[in-house]
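Issue 218. Parser rejects a valid record. Input:
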Amino acid sequence: MTVKSFDRVKTIGFRTVAASALTAAAVLGGTAAAQATAPAKATAPAKAATAAPATVKAPAAAVKYCKYKVTTQAGVNVRSGPGTNYSIVGTYAYGQTFWAKAASVNGWRYISSARYVTTQHTAQVTSTPCQYS
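Output the parser choked on:
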């Protein structure tokens, strides 16, 4: 069995001895003892093997969060879901700022787990750049 190594290769007489033959044997599934005792064949310098391109999983899309402020004097209700049929779990006062997803769904902006606010009474704070998570 010929062991190919991508580390430094030294040529001594008619034999080619790889500096990391034992490591290469372990990686290729051979035993270190079998590789150490087997004489290496006299070969020309090996060309680097062309490996197939590795499949890389695409990263998850980043979610854009922006800073918003309440624009109505009465304030705005924070709800447990995206609609008025969901329970009120908090409120934001006039002028109060908060971070939420930039994308809205049916007029409701996602703040955090089970926290939504209507887009009708909020505006983006443009002086603060949006962030990605």
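Fixed in the parser; the record now loads. The longest strand covers residues 64-70.
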